[in-house]
Amino acid sequence: MEDLGITVIKVVFIWTWVLLIATLMTWVERRGSAMMQDRLGPNRAGPFGLLQPVADGIKLFTKEDIVPEKAQKILFSLGPVLFALPAFSAYAVVPFGDKLVLDGKEIILQVADVNIGFLYIVALGGLAVYGMVVGGWGSNNKYSILGGLRSTAQLISYEVPFGIVLLAVVMVFGTFSLREISLAQQGTFLGFLPNWGVFKQPLGFILFMTAAYAEANRVPFDLPEAESEIVAGYHTEYGSMRLGLYLFGEYVNLYTLAALTVTLFFGAWHLPYLDMSHFLGPISYGIASFLVFFLKTAFFLWLFVWIRWTVPRFRYDQVMGLGWKALIPLSLVNLFVTALIIQLTV
Amino acid sequence: MLKPIKKPVVKREYTFLERIYLWEIVKGLKLTWKHFTFNVRASFRPGPHTVPTCWQYPEDRRPIAPIFRGAHYLALDEKGRELCIGCGMCARACPAHCIKVKRGKPPEGQEEKYAGKTICESFEIDMLRCIVCGFCEEACAKGALYLGPDYELAEYEKGPCIYDKERLLANFRKARAEGKLKPKRKPVPVAAPEKKPVGKKAVSPEGKASGSQKEK
Questions:
Q1: CA–CA separation, A152 vs A144, rounded Å?
Q2: Residue A41 covered by a domain
Q3: Of A32, A43, A307, which is closest to B36 when you measure between CB atoms?
């Protein structure tokens, strides 16, 4: 057991880091999408417009906090909190690096290495629905309630393949702990492939990504906030920092999902064919593992933006059809085949 | 003329790859990536207006046509004489009624400063009402009033939006200094009024006006 001080430092560090990256993501999203659409995007505030998130934050903070007259006040103010809380706490079990050795003490770069890491993440993903549906219900707006209902149906449908795919991954690595899964991805597999989850679970990876996009309410599955259909969905009536909390929670969710993808399928902090711990000192190895992990995560964060401007939004029945008629059977097949292979080889 | 495009709508079954959709996503990603890298590279290129679709306004300005209609100016001729004679044709032509001209005699001993025998004592254009149609420019018989190249007409108060004579002359000097004076307008061919033996009462004032213009 580590002492409390180190844990507090780790919590504060990863909290700040995730918030910083989430802030930066708003900038990346805006400028990246602008560049894809042959625009320039916000480039006036600071160098390359990098201070745009600060300007956005100031704007959100200084705006009037409007509560609709006929809204249910308690639910209305509870919505963003319920949405942001699971988003902010989900990162606790995801590692952000290997370990740092300081004064002979080993510091694991992960807030809590619990042996039920998976269940924790799935549970918090399920809780995030409450934020949307409570906010949508409390706003007393037809578009909000539609958005809330859509988010409920969508998240519940996609939690199932999400969970089943995670189960297959657990079967491959034989543990629920995310740190142990990361550690197990070192070395090579079949002689030439890196020992990464994506090569052991190729179908699982595709299913996981699809479900993750649906969980994060991102295009092509951004039905709960489809702006061309239901204004802004569950956060139609929200303004000022409550809206900010919703948007922020979304980006934090993205970060968690990207980090989870890297942890499960892309070898966490391991470089392919290269063991960094052999030729790096203990401190530089810790920092390098953090950076490698972050760069991989950054790619998947970028992929969220990239996909957003590539794939058009699905129709609602298509989303449901994909979830129930394609993803769940495929994930069950994936589970079955994985079980069969494990049974035959071990 | 353009021919209407006739393209038959061919409906076909999607291939297996298309129905799986993933490969199509990869193709789409390639396309967006192409646009992304193109624009990023363009935005890092030095110089103004590097991204072809974007004009960064205060720094990059689109070139304007030589006959662009912007803020008005009152022209001087080569000798520096005022061309406006205060006839008020511009005010008459103005559909928004934003021009006020007062005709007067040149002050004694300063006749060489004015090209005509009469001058405009005051000349006011209310830019808040002006619709920048250019009729005043067309109506001007002496080629004195032009709509110049300047299009940044915003002011902090209403007062400066009403251009007086000084402002209009200053606009001219600015345009001359920048070499953006408008080319002299070709005279608009005016159809000769039909000559009909009509009574004095039937002649409309406009008929008279055009007649007098033609005489000059």
A1: 12
A2: no
A3: A32
